[in-house]
Amino acid sequence: MSEHNFSIEFFPPKTAEGAEKLRVTRVKLAELHPKYFSVTFGAGGTTQQGTLDTVIDIRKEGYAAAPHLSCVGGTRDSIRDILKQYQANDIHRLVALRGDLPSGYGAAGEFRYANELVEFIRAETGDWFHIEVAAYPEMHPQARSPQDDLQSFVRKMNAGANAAITQYFYNADAYFQFVELAQKAGVTAPIVAGIMPITNSSQLMRFSEMCGAEIPRWVRLKLASFGDDTASIKAFGLDVVTHLCERLLAGGAPGLHFYSLNQAAATTAIWQRLV
Ligand code: FAD
């Protein structure tokens, strides 16, 4: 698997205890030798210091770190300051996003879409950062149409992104078709598949509702049939997601990006089945 681009995502912990737990998780996940660990970033300011603190911890431990950076609600000055902090801390990767403002948050800021952020990062910092952007094989929930969303994706890549990571999905065909259409539209950069392990069905339904990821009917029915039997949910989830990863890699996916939710067990179990 070492030829593949394999990465793992965390969210910034809110407490010192959470930070300590994440350190333990990281030690376990580092044994899988991912290319980098990424750390999400809350639009509107909620977790932004946490993102910086977590990536600094990751760098100190000797691993590559990719902070996410969302531009909605930000200004050119505020984004410039963040970029400078990352450069000062020897961070060379970024996942660049528009983000979603928390409800009730007022100003949208100076950037409307992620392509504007990518352009700004390139204009300010040249080639310092390896930039990843988001892709949506099942369409971003706010897009007017799949065609429109694909055009927005291509615009974002052409603005200077090096690679993309997809929203998670459970329909491999949606990914393959998206990649094919993106390539026909001139995208040559890798489009890494985002993978959400299945360990908790109510949480999965809630996330999927928000981000527009479809849970196939048969998967939903099976998960519902297990009720509170978490062992069965995890065993079934492991089978489904491992099979998805196998199909993706066999079909040419350049890599996998695991949404770990700060847990080591599910990502490790899938990974061990793949190697
Ligand atoms: P964009 O690429 O700007 O697209 C947003 C919408 O606008 C789409 O519907 C697109 O079709 C449309 N659009 C884009 N450009 C144009 C244009 N020029 N004209 C008209 N329409 C346009 N969110 C966070 O807050 N923090 C995170 O750390 C985070 N990490 C993520 C990591 C990954 C890998 C993924 C897939 C998502 C992540 N998100 C995160 C969620 C993301 O911020 C949301 O999905 C957000 O709604 C869109 O961000 P984007 O960068 O894809 O936006």
Whole-number count of domains: 1
Shape by Cα distribution: globular
Outline the biggest β-sheet.
8 strands, parallel, barrel
Find the structural class using helix and strand composition.
Answer: alpha/beta
Helix content: 40-55%
Mean pLDDT: 95
Poorly predicted regions? none
Beta-strand percentage?
Answer: 5-15%
Q: What would you say about this model in short?
A:
Helix content is 47%, strand content 15%. The chain is α/β, with parallel strands linked by helices. Strand 4, helix 4 and strand 5 form a beta-alpha-beta unit.
Topology summary:
Blueprint: E1 5-10, H1 16-30, E2 36-39, H2 48-60, E3 65-70, H3 76-88, E4 93-97, H4 114-125, E5 130-135, H5 146-158, E6 163-166, H6 172-184, E7 191-195, H7 201-211, H8 217-225, H9 230-250, E8 255-259, H10 265-274
Parallel strand pairs: 1-2, 1-8, 2-3, 3-4, 4-5, 5-6, 6-7, 7-8
The chain binds flavin-adenine dinucleotide.
Structure in words:
- This protein is α/β, with parallel strands linked by helices and 275 residues long.
- It has a single domain, classed as TIM Barrel, CATH 3.20.20.
- It has ten helices and eight strands.
- It has helices at residues 16-30, 48-60, 76-88, 114-125, 146-158, 172-184, 201-211, 217-225, 230-250, 265-274; strands at 5-10, 36-39, 65-70, 93-97, 130-135, 163-166, 191-195, 255-259.
- Strands 1-2-3-4-5-6-7-8 form an eight-stranded parallel β-barrel, surrounded by four helices.
- Strand 4, helix 4 and strand 5 form a beta-alpha-beta unit.
- Helix 4 (114-125) runs parallel beside helix 5 (146-158).
- It is globular, with a radius of gyration of 18 Å.
- 41% of the residues are buried.
- The model has no long low-confidence stretch (mean pLDDT 95).
- The structure holds flavin-adenine dinucleotide (FAD).
- The site of flavin-adenine dinucleotide (FAD) has 26 residues, from strand 3, strand 4, helix 4 and helix 5.
- Flavin-adenine dinucleotide (FAD) binds next to strand 3, strand 4, helix 4 and helix 5.
